[in-house]
Specification:
about 350 residues, six-stranded mixed sheet
């Protein structure tokens, strides 16, 4: 999964049979997205692992721990608060069916770790090794000498076919391989020696990440806010966010709160007869293809719950309402198919 603000990849790993999941490098602002995918895949989040104390975004580790009871893993060298598993070089960890080995790969930061699957088919390299590049080494105890050794003596010794999954990419690339990076990496591949690499890194003049003063202290708390409080959640309904980003409520909640919301039916006129029992739920009926032109007919004094046959059209209705300034809106999950089933 990708955060386009910080260009960060978050990786979800799970055994399809045992259903226990691990998230690598989750982003605080994307926690709802990540939890939505975990819920939709019917997984249980057991572990969150950060590859290092990021300077460009705040980790969601602490937040996810509060939400799910999962454990947090990160390098012992970081010394972050709220960590349950402090990783040493070579230590194995993971969840049922997914075993990772921690590889200490300092140089970008002292606490950088890479995580390789037990069969060495994949390695999650954090900011140590990127696709055709590497992490910078000019802040957070960075060292170009250490980074060269980390990449060449700890990562480049993995099998050539081992797939490389970095923490960031700024050019739309999603994966590489150890063999590719050994041959073609612009900074450390193709036979570059330590002098080549160190001089290259010394010549780079990059601005510090914009969020470094906020992100690093927060990440040393595993993403816990300074006040130790969870972010505010919508309090008008029992909202569930889908992986597609749609706020939904369930049929049971709606039945118990009909007087507190406006129920908007966005089906076609000729569909109304298909679910006669829905008439008792609906306050207003506007077909989806007319909603933009008739949005002023929707009352603004109550939250709005949109519904349709399956929940697909009502999801778009929610977006249309949001575009027009409605804040407390949700789609009825599975629409009238769920109501009729009950």
């Amino acid at each position: 999964m990708f955060d386009d603000v910080s260009s960060t990849f978050t990786y979800l790993l799970a055994d399809e049979n045992r259903k226990e999941a691990i998230l690598i490098d989750p982003v605080f602002s994307q926690s709802k997205r990540d939890m939505a995918l975990i819920d939709e895949l019917e997984l249980t989040l057991v572990l969150v692992a950060d590859t290092h104390a990021h300077a460009d975004h705040i980790t969601a580790a602490w937040l996810l721990k509060q939400k799910t009871g999962c454990k947090i893993a990160s390098a012992k060298a970081i010394g972050a608060e709220h960590v349950d598993i402090s990783l040493d070089d070579g230590q194995e960890f993971g969840v049922a069916g997914v075993t990772l080995r921690a590889i200490s790969t300092p140089g970008h930061t002292d606490g950088c770790m890479s995580y390789v699957l037990s069969d060495q088919s994949m390695v999650f390299t954090g900011d140590a090794l990127l696709i055709r590049g590497c992490g910078r080494s000019d802040f957070q105890q960075g060292s170009a000498h250490k980074l060269f050794q980390s990449i060449t003596s700890k990562l480049f010794v993995l099998p050539d076919e081992c797939l490389v999954y970095p923490a960031h990419d700024y050019h739309g690339r999603t994966q590489s391989s150890i063999g590719e990076e050994k041959a073609f990496n612009a900074r450390v591949g193709g036979g570059a020696n330590e002098t080549d690499f160190v001089e290259y890194m010394k010549a780079m003049k990059l601005p510090h990440p914009k969020k470094i003063d906020e992100a690093v202290p927060a990440n040393l708390r595993s993403g816990c806010p300074e006040d130790g409080k969870l972010p505010a959640e919508p309090d008008w309904a029992d909202i569930r966010l889908t992986y597609a980003g749609v706020p939904e409520i369930g049929e049971e909640w709606l039945e118990h709160h009909l007087d507190e919301v406006t129920v908007l039916d966005v089906r076609l006129d000729e569909e109304i007869k298909d679910f006669p029992s829905a008439e008792a739920l609906v306050d207003l009926q506007i077909p989806l293809n007319e909603l933009r032109s008739r949005v002023d007919e929707v009352p603004r004094n109550k939250p709005v719950v949109a519904l349709c046959r399956s929940g697909r059209r009502s999801a778009l209705a929610v977006n249309i309402l949001k575009e027009n300034g409605f804040e407390e809106v949700a789609s009825l999950s599975r629409g009238l198919m769920e109501v009729s089933r009950d």
